Amino acid sequence: MTAMTTNVQGQLEIGGVSTGELTAAYGTPLMVYDEDMIRRNARAFRESFIESGLEFQVAYASKAFMCKEMVRLAEEENLSLDVVSGGELYTALEAGFPAGRIHFHGNNKSEEELVMALEAGIGCFVVDSFLELELLHELAKEREQQVNILLRVTPGVEAHTHDYIMTGQDDSKFGFGISTGQADRAMQIALCKPHYNVLGIHSHIGSQIFELDGFQQAITVLSDFLQSVRLECEVTLPVLNIGGGFGVRYTEEDKPLPISEYVKAITDCVKESFGENGYPLPEVWVEPGRSIVAEAGTTLYKVGSKKIIPDVRTYVSVDGGMTDNLRPALYGAKYHAVLANRPNEECTELVSIAGKCCESGDMLIWDLKLPPVNFGDTLAVFSTGAYGYSMANNYNRIPRPAVVFVKDGESRVVIERETYADLVRLDR
């Protein structure tokens, strides 16, 4: 979770700015990012790969959190960029991100999205289906373009994570299965397409992964697959993209490894597996998103009503909820929080944090120990930097919150708070 200190007034600070100052200036709910932490995490990936001696690319998975300022930060930290929709691609291009460092994912890219990406001259398409394999090539042929592609394959590895965020098993909407023979068939088709430059393969086994064995198993399967392609098709493909999914700490129960340990395990396994096959060491690509931004984000809420049900539960309601953090309702994600205006007081109450939406399932945290909670207190929920704002919605016609970056005692808005006028702007 983001590094915080308490100032002389007894308030939490983020990036040298007090949470009281932040809420006074920008209101609540407010999503606050520690810019230094984002940059440290990005650099940790790059520095660990440099130490490995392998060629590499680190692409920020923009689905975790994206806005133009985040894109500019990724460019400044020498990251590539992973996008999964026309909207993410548009944002990247509007922010001036170099198109040649953009990778385009997605299991159902539309023709319009593919044309947009071709016209922008992006660096790589991650092809996810037989339909896309044909459609993208026809569009490239019409434009007389050579297109770099990776084939997304499923290695049949099930990561130890929530069912909704497992993607590497055979039964997945993503990619070509290796064990089913679909990956081999797709590779043979792709290699025969004159407007394709097949760089290699892509795999992503899931998200919020704390153990190394899933990555290691996947790399062994992928290495063997590339070796079989080499022997059957007489081609050596230079890129292995093993995706992301590196775990982060949401609560004290979570025990993620340091970024350097994830990278070392991956690169060591690549060296061993490819070395055993006598295959030239590939350029390794990874796509961290959550592990770069999650713990750098904190959401600040204003406490509203409090409902005490004797011998049952105490509900404390805040002025946000599933509209700015859908993860608890979507798949039971857990978070930790404190009272930002009184973080050092003894925690004597067991409460549950409720959102303001008209849904019984709009609960942010169950069974949280806090000091006695009063109307107007500020609740700080930690590690909300990934899949919070990017999943934000306008259910109950609630405007989405503002987002600010803080650094060295200064704060700046990177996404303005939505207004009621914004909510009806497209209505007719």
TrEMBL record:
EC annotation from Swiss-Prot or TrEMBL: 4.1.1.20
Protein's name in the database: Diaminopimelate decarboxylase
Function as written in the Swiss-Prot or TrEMBL entry: Specifically catalyzes the decarboxylation of meso-diaminopimelate (meso-DAP) to L-lysine.
Keywords of the record: Amino-acid biosynthesis, Decarboxylase, Lyase, Lysine biosynthesis, Pyridoxal phosphate
Homology family: Belongs to the Orn/Lys/Arg decarboxylase class-II family. LysA subfamily.
One annotated GO molecular function: pyridoxal phosphate binding
One Pfam family cited in the UniProt record for this chain: Orn_Arg_deC_N
Cofactor(s) listed in the protein's UniProt record: pyridoxal 5'-phosphate
GO biological process terms, semicolon-separated: lysine biosynthetic process via diaminopimelate
Domain Orn/DAP/Arg decarboxylase 2 N-terminal, residue spans: 37-294
Ligand binding (pyridoxal 5'-phosphate): G245, E287, P288, G289, R290, Y387
Catalytic activities: meso-2,6-diaminopimelate + H(+) = L-lysine + CO2
Catalytic residues as annotated in Swiss-Prot or TrEMBL: C358 (proton donor)
Signal peptide annotation: none
Pathway assigned to this chain's UniProt record: Amino-acid biosynthesis; L-lysine biosynthesis via DAP pathway; L-lysine from DL-2,6-diaminopimelate: step 1/1
CDD domains per record: PLPDE_III_DapDC
Annotated binding of substrate, by residue: R290, R327, Y331, E359, Y387
Keyword Amino-acid biosynthesis set for record: yes
Enzyme class: lyase
Subunit and partners: Homodimer.
In-chain residues carrying the UniProt-annotated modification N6-(pyridoxal phosphate)lysine: K63
